[in-house]
């Protein structure tokens, strides 16, 4: 029935079934382009319609979230959980609170999560959720009331062996704590139903750092594969949230020099490098005071510019803010300045056309589903620790994280080697696909 499976026909069908979901189309296109040729060579996946099944979420839950602001106004938001695929473990993936959140964005994120979680080698399926709620400018009490209302609706759909949400944009330790407290109250049970929890109630050391650290480890592996290292490399990092901050921290520890950070208002350029004490100041600014990155320029006497940081000369680039933040214009600047490699901390930060340009220019490119898998990997380790009711040390966890990132790099090389270079997109997509596809084949037609 699917003997004539072609990328064009597949994408045509997908767009027809999911109209207007441009981010979801983009994420599927990127995977299908490398996986369809593999499926054609391995017809058991084609005949079982595995890719068609993998691109349809198991289910999508959409709900109203009503809460009261500090002035007594009743506010209404929309909440979601997309339970994408549980072939290799319970649904697992973050929650995003941002005004741009819609079904297209959550489906792209849930789809990517399927491959990412498979690459970690841990038993985790894929899900993603969130709400079009904007935590910016809200008081702690407002955020608490929103989180409690959100969880009041979500809690019956999740569970420690069913679906385990975590953080993403706009959801950090504060939000996870409010949601965990409400889950515990409603379910009358204390289980590891969320990850990214505080240490006092079942959280894991290194989870806060994991995505950013993992991204720096992945870059280190790509460089080592070419006989290079991080030492003395000038690095451009975008974002100034959880992923960006800890990516910058690990880059510095590995000997690189980070010269930019950004937020949605613009970027700072500090040619002297963002050292440890400046980074501690940024953590306080972003996590406690919830300020803007422009304040860094005032504090440390450097430049602040509107726009994105890709025009700043660098050896290495780390997009760590959001989807489609690195377009053809930014990639042209990176290439013109001699950038050697891009490693994605964010999910799908580089557009399809920009990825093609990087490949043509021979710039190494680590896609997010491989390079930022460290966060969900340590979430998986948090689940393990919750199950055995033990807490591992930071050293143990960081070493496991590094080994997982080395293993992901190895899988990319195994499936992505093309002549004398590695196609990391192809490698990550095929390696991630195989484990999930084989599990789905084993289950029969469900
Ligand atoms: N947290 C995790 O463990 C993981 C996160 N990721 C991905 O990493 C990325 C960053 O997440 P995280 O650091 O957790 O989120 P945070 O909310 O902690 O930080 C997000 C950062 O990105 C900036 N940003 C958000 N939206 C935009 C936009 N439209 N344009 C420009 N800048 C923007 C924010 O700036 P501002 O404050 O101005 O909005 C902020 O600096 C996301 O793509 C996420 O999906 C991937 C794997 C795991
Ligand atoms: O830790 C998790 O479960 C989720 C991390 C995440 O949302 C992601 O990998 O994009």
UniProtKB/TrEMBL annotation:
MF GO annotations: glutamate dehydrogenase (NADP+) activity; nucleotide binding
A GO cellular component entry from the record: cytosol
UniProt entry keywords in alphabetical sequence: NAD, Nucleotide-binding, Oxidoreductase
Site (Important for catalysis): 168
CDD domains, A to Z: NAD_bind_2_Glu_DH
Residues where substrate binds: 92, 113, 116, 167, 379
Catalytic site positions: 128 (proton donor)
Reaction equation(s) it catalyzes: L-glutamate + NADP(+) + H2O = 2-oxoglutarate + NH4(+) + NADPH + H(+)
Role, per record: Catalyzes the reversible oxidative deamination of glutamate to alpha-ketoglutarate and ammonia.
This protein's name: Glutamate dehydrogenase
Protein source organism: Halioglobus maricola
């Amino acid at each position: 029935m699917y003997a004539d499976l072609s990328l064009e026909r597949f994408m045509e069908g997908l767009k027809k079934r999911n109209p207007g979901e441009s981010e979801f189309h983009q994420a599927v296109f990127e995977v299908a382009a490398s996986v369809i040729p593999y499926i054609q060579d391995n017809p058991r996946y084609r005949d079982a319609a595995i890719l068609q099944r993998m691109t349809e979420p198991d289910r999508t839950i959409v709900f109203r979230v009503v809460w009261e602001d500090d002035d007594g106004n009743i506010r209404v938001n929309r909440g979601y959980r997309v339970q994408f695929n549980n072939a290799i473990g319970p649904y697992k993936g973050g929650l995003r609170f941002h005004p741009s959140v819609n079904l297209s964005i959550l489906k792209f994120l849930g789809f990517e999560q399927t491959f990412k979680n498979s690459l970690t080698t841990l038993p985790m399926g894929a899900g993603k959720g969130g709400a079009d709620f904007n935590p910016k400018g809200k008081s702690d009490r407002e955020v608490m009331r929103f989180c409690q209302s959100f969880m009041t609706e979500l809690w019956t759909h999740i569970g420690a062996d069913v679906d385990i949400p975590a953080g993403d944009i706009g959801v950090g330790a504060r939000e996870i704590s409010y949601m965990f407290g409400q889950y515990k109250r409603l379910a009358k049970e204390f289980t590891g139903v969320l990850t990214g929890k505080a240490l006092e109630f079942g959280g894991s050391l290194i989870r806060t750092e994991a995505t950013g650290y993992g991204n720096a480890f992945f870059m280190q592996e790509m460089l080592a594969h070419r006989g290079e290292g991080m030492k003395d490399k000038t690095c451009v990092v975008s974002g100034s949230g959880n992923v960006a901050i800890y990516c910058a921290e690990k880059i510095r520890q590995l000997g690189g020099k980070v010269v930019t950070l950004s937020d949605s208002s613009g970027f700072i350029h500090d040619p002297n490098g963002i050292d440890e004490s400046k980074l501690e100041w940024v953590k306080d600014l972003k996590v406690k005071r919830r300020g803007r990155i422009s304040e860094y320029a005032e504090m440390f006497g450097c430049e602040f510019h509107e726009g994105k940081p890709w025009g700043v000369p660098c050896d290495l680039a780390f997009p760590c803010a959001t989807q489609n933040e690195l377009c053809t214009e930014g990639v042209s600047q990176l290439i013109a300045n001699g950038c050697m490699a891009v490693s994605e901390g964010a999910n799908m930060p580089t557009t399809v056309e920009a990825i093609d340009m990087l490949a043509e220019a021979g710039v190494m490119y680590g896609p997010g589903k491989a390079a930022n898998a460290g966060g969900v990997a340590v979430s998986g380790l948090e689940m393990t620790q919750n199950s055995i009711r033990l807490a591992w040390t930071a050293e143990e966890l960081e070493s496991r994280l590094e080994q997982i990132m080395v293993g992901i790099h190895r899988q990319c090389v195994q499936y992505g080697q093309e002549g004398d270079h590695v196609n990391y997109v192809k490698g990550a997509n095929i390696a991630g696909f195989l484990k999930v596809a084989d599990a789905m084949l084993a289950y029969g037609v469900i």
